[in-house]
Design goal:
13 helices, 45% helix, five-stranded mixed β-sheet, alpha+beta, 12% strand, DNA polymerase, domain 1, Double Stranded RNA Binding Domain
Length: 334
Amino acid sequence: MSHQFFFNPYILDNLALPSRGFDVVQDVSEPRLRMYITSRGVKTFFVRKRIKGRDRRVIIGKYPDMDIEDARSAVANVLADAMKKTPVKRKKILFRDFVQMYLKNRVHRTVGTYDKLVRSIDRHLKSLFDKNVSDITVDDIKNTIETIDGAAIAERMYELLASVFRYAIDTGYVKNNPVTGVAKPTQNRRVRPLTKYGLRRLVDAIKDYSDPTVRAAFLMLVYGFAPKTRVFSMQWEDLDFNRYTWGDMPLSDMAIVVLRDLPQDGYWVFPGRGHGHLTDPRLAWARVVENAGIPNLTMDDVYKFMMRRLNWAGDREDLRNNMNDLLDELVNIE
């Protein structure tokens, strides 16, 4: 249940931020008006309404760009607009063209992940491209999903198609979602094998590795609270040992100890072969995790394990303290 109080600038400006995710608060003056508060300090007005059996949350605007009174006044109009029936368009549109419209209006990703999504669509949903959106049937969806190799990819394409056709309903191109008539593919998700005691064994195995560059890079997977691609591409110019920062992120004490022992005689902190940085030392990682007794552990598992346990804070110094506390708890196990 959301916390209720009378919205005013003083209270909203001084709301405590959640440690992770978001909180919801509700206005007493206009009970239909609510606000998201994220762990990064973003505050957004919204309303909730059940439409056609689905709980919808309609964004009104961000605070303080939108005034509180303007948000209250907008509630009635926003709800009225949300309840209007979308007129069904008689003009037909090919699935290929509709997907382009969906990507433009509903998908907000970085360039790399956006391009990856487009490649997946071109590869797995090509059989639907020359069909009109309104003519696609349950059997068309079923046949398309069944031709995809790999349960994980099939599940993602299923969810994407469901989202595309929900957008088609919202824009009036179809009346019903054919994806709902197809059973969702299931996959056996891999259980991540890392525990805090396994992390201690992993750190010990990394410290025993002979190559100093790879050893330091692997330790930074634990101490740096960053994914492997960012760790391996670390640059000296982004590090500030006086302020204990790495770009916009703080550095833990253990990370600083590791980095200060490295020779600062190049562009990359972890140089690879040739003129580039370390990329994917999978053979070295395989030896390390085997020595640690966790043969199925991936480098991404380490990052996700650490970030799930990190108590996020908007203040850089608070976040740095939380990093140090977590490492003391997990790594320095007696």
